[in-house]
Amino acid sequence: MVSAINGFLNFIFTFYRNLRIRNKMILLIGGVVLICVLPLSIIVLYRNQNLMTLKTFEVCRNLAHNISNLATEELLIDETYDATRTALSRLKENEISSLTDVYVVNVDGYYVAEYENHGRVGKKAPEYELKYIKGLHSMDLIESKNSSGRNVLKFTYPIFITQRNENMRVGAAVFEFDKEEVYLPVNQIRATIFAVGGILFIIGIGIAFYSAVEFSKPIRKLAEGAKLIGSGNLNHRIELTGKDELGQLANRFNQMTERIQDFTQNLEHMVEQRTDELNRTLKEVQALKIAQDGDYYLTSLLLEPLQPNNNRSQNVHTDFLIDQKKKFKFRNWEAQIGGDICITDSLFLRNKEYTVFINGDAMGKSIQGAGGALVFGAVFNAGLIRSKLARNPNSYPETWLKERFLDLQNVFLSFDGSMYISVCMGLIENETGVMYYINAEHPFSVLYRDGKASFLENELALRKLGMPGQEDHFSVRIFQLMQGDLVFVGSDGRDDILVKNLEGEETVQEDETLFLKTVEKAEGQIETVREITRKQGVLIDDLSLLRIQFDGPQKTIAVPYSSDLEDSIRRGYRLLEKGKTDEVIAIIDNYMSKFKDLPSLLHLSGVAFLAKKDYERAIACFEELVTLDPTNGDAIFQLSKSHAALGDWDKAADAAERLFLREPHNLKNLKNLAEIYLESGILPRADFMIKKAVEIYPDDKEALVLYKKIKEAWESEIDSKAKTEISESEMRSVILRADQHYSNKEYRKAIQEYLKALGMDDDHAWVLFRLANCYYFTQKTEECIRYFNRSIAVSPKNYHARNNLGSVYFHLGDYDKAREQWMRALQIKPDFKTAQKNLDKLNDIMDQGVLS
């Protein structure tokens, strides 16, 4: 049913929408008139009909009431009905309009009086009428037909008499009115309403037709004009002179047609003109594009030699691929450009061969990133070449990484935040597979071993290069590679993949372990890793991957061959705790010839010799242990302690600094370094180490005592300076004469005076320093070096003496010693520009290949 109604309504709406505007207006206005007239006519008609019925009812009620007053007593006695009949005769004489009959029936159902003489008096009324009368309690109206078949309105009024507070029925009076005569005024009103409504409807239809014609005529003209213009007749104009909305629309339509006609007539010329403009613009853009691609291409040419794979190791194999986001074509060459860079090479440090590897990701895309990669590659390769050209490179791997880090960090700091680069950089000892590396906010390195991939790091220790304050957080990670191990290093392009989620929206994947799964699925093959990564989604960043494979001999460390040896080593440590070093050394001598490469035995030997104060043999044991196991941090610590016990502060500091680069929070080593620098007189470095120890371990008593001791040394040095000034006042005249000769470049006379002053104070640092300078200017090199060393021994923090001594070594051709003295001067005073300038000069000479 509902669907049928909806279908009918849709049909009506569709029919109405498809009508012309004129027909719609006729239908709409006609409907409005019909809706207004018809309901009003019906309402008026029925209100008048009800009013007529009500009035007739009231008349009958009054007549019946009067007649019942006259007939009540006669009906009760039921003898004669003269009064009743007389009343009916007078009623007839009054000739009441439309009254056709009146009669009275007693309680027994007999007619006792009537309006017309129909011969019913004394007869009994029909049963259906008697039954109807008995059921009435008040006057009632029904429509029926009389004996002649006419429609009448029949009013029946029951007559009651009250006796003993009870109503007793005694009869009924019946009045019949001619229905047509009663409703004759109503019918006349109805005819009048219908006539007037019809006339109004016709007038409304006429108005609707006229309005529709008048309103649709301009619309029809607009439609016909639009049709002609649309067919191509642009000369046609719509002739509407009115100022109403339709006239304004026609005027705008004509203006638009004129413009279209003018545009059409001049279209060819305009197209040619616009085409020429576009061609010129396109040529300019193409010229700019060619120039830009040329810049890109030249930059890519500069980058190419800066990212070589020069590793030639038989044990460590390296492969890398770089897939930059920005690809371009310049003339006949296709190239790419971006901020990712990979470098591998070989390097000898301390007579050991290392594989150098680095993977960087400079900030920015295309030319910006390429600029950062270009700077990075140039600086790193320059440092690499300097290291190769050094005659005797004696840097430890940790130190070498620190130097390269500082080189790069200082350069990128100069960009003042406009360029950063993340980097993973390291060295792998080709023989043992020990990997030394740093990770500066680069994606975690991945180890692939036995078919499983895992991250080598779980947190970042360094921020990107170029971020301030990274120098104090520098540390080197150590990892022992096993035979067959693969290490993957890559830029964040390996994770920045655009994928579609369940809703079909594109988003960057957030699974941190996705690359691990990719490496496992690719079984460690670098090309397969790239193919799988590309299939996972759309790459939105530069992608670079570096693969390192260690195929060296499996590192084996000798193990005890018998439980007796193990028990002996454990017993040796127990004896050391009791101070019985001689017995421990006897045990060592018993096994050393057969198990000299056993790390646990070497460690026990070194500790025993250190306890016995046989420092040289202790040093030999710990050096051998570090050679066998470079990852053993405790062996490096004990080596530093052994050198310190011999008073070889430089070597002690070198070993401890090496451990510090690995374990910057090692409390024992921090305290060891503080003591070494305190004894060496390098108080700034000692202060730095002890403050770091106290900062990390504020409750360590030994650190607090050492902190107090270093503080007192500072104060003592200040007092010593004051005393020196007092003592110098006694020989001021001698030194003043010497300084005067020195200023006048009378170096030989100055030497005589300085030697006289030195006789008064054999450890006068200033006199020793000036004497060394005088011997330098008089070309007495041996004396010069001797007095510079004496000056440094008296005042270890005299960075001027170290700088001048470095210059002496430089002129003698001993560049390693020159570099060492200049670096120590900078270590004492980092902002010492003269030493830095000399060091830069040496580096530049090495970069230019002057030294061989």
Structural write-up:
This protein is of the alpha+beta class. Among the domains are: 195 residues, 4-Layer Sandwich (Phosphatase 2c, domain 1); 52 residues, no CATH class. The chain has 28 helices and 20 strands. The protein has a five-stranded antiparallel β-sheet. Strands 6-20-16-13-14 form a five-stranded antiparallel β-sheet, with helices on one face. A five-stranded antiparallel β-sheet has the order 9-10-11-12-15, with helices on one face. Strand 4 and strand 5 form a beta hairpin. Helix 15 runs antiparallel to helix 16. The longest helix has 57 residues. The protein is elongated and about 185 Å long. The model has no long low-confidence stretch (mean pLDDT 81).
Structural features:
repeat; Phosphatase 2c, domain 1; 852 residues; membrane; coiled coil; alpha+beta; 58% helix
